[in-house]
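Input (structure):
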Protein backbone atom coordinates (compact mmCIF):
# COMPACT_ATOMS: atom_id res chain seq x y z
CA UNK A 1 0.00 0.00 0.00
CA UNK A 2 2.22 2.80 -1.23
CA UNK A 3 0.99 6.36 -0.84
CA UNK A 4 1.93 9.27 -3.05
CA UNK A 5 3.39 11.93 -0.77
CA UNK A 6 4.61 15.37 -1.82
CA UNK A 7 8.23 16.19 -0.89
CA UNK A 8 8.81 18.13 2.31
CA UNK A 9 6.15 16.49 4.49
CA UNK A 10 6.09 17.41 8.18
CA UNK A 11 5.21 14.95 10.91
CA UNK A 12 1.54 15.96 11.09
CA UNK A 13 1.03 15.29 7.38
CA UNK A 14 3.08 12.08 7.54
CA UNK A 15 0.85 10.97 10.41
CA UNK A 16 -2.29 11.77 8.45
CA UNK A 17 -1.29 9.98 5.24
CA UNK A 18 0.20 6.92 6.95
CA UNK A 19 -2.44 6.49 9.64
CA UNK A 20 0.31 6.31 12.27
CA UNK A 21 0.27 8.79 15.14
CA UNK A 22 2.98 11.46 15.39
CA UNK A 23 3.99 9.90 18.70
CA UNK A 24 4.46 6.53 17.00
CA UNK A 25 6.51 8.14 14.23
CA UNK A 26 8.82 9.64 16.86
CA UNK A 27 8.98 6.26 18.59
CA UNK A 28 9.94 4.56 15.31
CA UNK A 29 12.69 7.15 14.95
CA UNK A 30 13.92 6.61 18.52
CA UNK A 31 14.00 2.86 17.91
CA UNK A 32 16.09 3.37 14.76
CA UNK A 33 13.36 2.07 12.46
CA UNK A 34 13.17 5.27 10.41
CA UNK A 35 15.47 8.25 9.87
CA UNK A 36 13.47 11.21 8.59
CA UNK A 37 15.31 14.16 7.12
CA UNK A 38 15.26 17.58 8.76
CA UNK A 39 14.14 20.95 7.54
CA UNK A 40 16.43 23.94 8.19
CA UNK A 41 14.30 24.78 11.25
CA UNK A 42 14.87 21.28 12.71
CA UNK A 43 11.39 19.90 11.94
CA UNK A 44 11.25 16.35 10.64
CA UNK A 45 10.97 15.91 6.88
CA UNK A 46 9.26 12.71 5.74
CA UNK A 47 9.94 11.67 2.15
CA UNK A 48 8.03 9.04 0.17
CA UNK A 49 10.46 6.24 1.03
CA UNK A 50 10.18 6.98 4.76
CA UNK A 51 6.37 6.94 4.58
CA UNK A 52 6.51 3.64 2.67
CA UNK A 53 8.81 2.24 5.35
CA UNK A 54 6.41 3.42 8.07
CA UNK A 55 3.62 1.45 6.37
CA UNK A 56 5.77 -1.70 6.34
CA UNK A 57 6.66 -1.19 10.02
CA UNK A 58 3.03 -0.67 10.99
CA UNK A 59 2.02 -3.82 9.13
CA UNK A 60 4.72 -5.88 10.83
CA UNK A 61 3.84 -4.49 14.27
CA UNK A 62 0.14 -5.19 13.70
CA UNK A 63 1.13 -8.77 12.89
CA UNK A 64 2.52 -9.01 16.40
CA UNK A 65 6.22 -8.92 15.61
CA UNK A 66 8.41 -7.28 18.25
CA UNK A 67 10.31 -4.07 17.45
CA UNK A 68 13.61 -5.91 18.04
CA UNK A 69 12.94 -8.34 15.21
CA UNK A 70 11.73 -5.61 12.88
CA UNK A 71 14.76 -3.45 13.66
CA UNK A 72 17.15 -6.32 12.95
CA UNK A 73 15.78 -7.26 9.55
CA UNK A 74 14.11 -4.13 8.16
CA UNK A 75 17.27 -2.43 6.87
CA UNK A 76 18.17 -5.48 4.81
CA UNK A 77 14.64 -5.89 3.48
CA UNK A 78 14.20 -2.27 2.40
CA UNK A 79 17.68 -1.17 1.32
CA UNK A 80 16.60 -1.42 -2.31
CA UNK A 81 19.70 -3.28 -3.46
CA UNK A 82 18.06 -6.69 -3.71
CA UNK A 83 21.43 -8.23 -2.83
CA UNK A 84 21.02 -11.27 -0.64
CA UNK A 85 17.28 -10.79 -0.35
CA UNK A 86 16.64 -14.54 -0.44
CA UNK A 87 19.02 -15.12 2.48
CA UNK A 88 17.56 -12.21 4.44
CA UNK A 89 14.04 -13.39 3.75
CA UNK A 90 14.92 -16.94 4.82
CA UNK A 91 16.51 -15.63 8.04
CA UNK A 92 13.55 -13.35 8.64
CA UNK A 93 11.05 -16.14 8.05
CA UNK A 94 13.00 -18.38 10.44
CA UNK A 95 12.90 -15.63 13.10
CA UNK A 96 9.17 -15.10 12.53
CA UNK A 97 8.50 -18.84 12.81
CA UNK A 98 10.56 -19.01 15.99
CA UNK A 99 8.67 -16.05 17.45
CA UNK A 100 5.34 -17.63 16.47
CA UNK A 101 6.35 -20.91 18.14
CA UNK A 102 7.28 -19.11 21.37
CA UNK A 103 3.99 -17.24 21.22
CA UNK A 104 2.06 -20.49 20.68
CA UNK A 105 3.77 -22.02 23.72
CA UNK A 106 2.79 -19.01 25.85
CA UNK A 107 -0.78 -19.24 24.55
CA UNK A 108 -0.91 -22.94 25.50
CA UNK A 109 0.21 -22.12 29.05
CA UNK A 110 -2.33 -19.31 29.30
CA UNK A 111 -5.08 -21.59 27.93
CA UNK A 112 -4.26 -24.19 30.60
CA UNK A 113 -4.40 -21.51 33.29
CA UNK A 114 -7.71 -20.26 31.93
CA UNK A 115 -9.14 -23.79 31.95
CA UNK A 116 -8.01 -24.26 35.56
CA UNK A 117 -9.65 -20.97 36.57
CA UNK A 118 -12.85 -21.93 34.72
CA UNK A 119 -12.95 -25.26 36.57
CA UNK A 120 -12.39 -23.51 39.90
CA UNK A 121 -15.15 -20.97 39.21
CA UNK A 122 -17.55 -23.69 38.09
CA UNK A 123 -16.84 -25.72 41.22
CA UNK A 124 -17.15 -22.66 43.45
CA UNK A 125 -20.46 -21.65 41.91
CA UNK A 126 -21.83 -25.18 42.29
CA UNK A 127 -20.82 -25.23 45.97
CA UNK A 128 -22.30 -21.77 46.49
CA UNK A 129 -25.58 -22.82 44.87
CA UNK A 130 -25.78 -25.96 47.01
CA UNK A 131 -25.28 -23.92 50.18
CA UNK A 132 -27.98 -21.42 49.29
CA UNK A 133 -30.56 -23.76 47.82
CA UNK A 134 -32.06 -25.32 51.00
CA UNK A 135 -35.84 -25.14 51.30
CA UNK A 136 -37.20 -22.14 53.22
CA UNK A 137 -38.96 -24.24 55.87
CA UNK A 138 -35.84 -26.32 56.57
CA UNK A 139 -34.25 -25.15 59.87
CA UNK A 140 -30.73 -23.87 59.82
CA UNK A 141 -28.39 -25.96 61.85
CA UNK A 142 -25.21 -25.25 63.73
CA UNK A 143 -22.43 -27.72 64.29
CA UNK A 144 -23.53 -31.29 64.48
CA UNK A 145 -26.94 -30.49 62.98
CA UNK A 146 -28.17 -28.69 66.11
CA UNK A 147 -30.17 -25.49 65.82
CA UNK A 148 -28.47 -22.19 66.65
CA UNK A 149 -29.63 -21.28 70.18
CA UNK A 150 -29.99 -17.52 69.59
CA UNK A 151 -31.37 -17.79 66.07
CA UNK A 152 -34.94 -16.41 65.97
CA UNK A 153 -35.83 -18.78 63.11
CA UNK A 154 -34.79 -22.01 64.86
CA UNK A 155 -35.56 -20.86 68.41
CA UNK A 156 -39.28 -20.58 67.56
CA UNK A 157 -39.41 -24.23 66.46
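Output (sequence):
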Amino acid sequence: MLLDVAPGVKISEASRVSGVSARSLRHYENEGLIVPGRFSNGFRDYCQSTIDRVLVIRSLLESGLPVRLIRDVLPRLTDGSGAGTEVVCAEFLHEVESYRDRLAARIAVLSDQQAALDAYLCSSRRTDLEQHSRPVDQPRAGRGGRAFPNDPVTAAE
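Notes: The CA atoms of residues 54 and 120 lie 46 Å apart. The chain has six helices and two strands.
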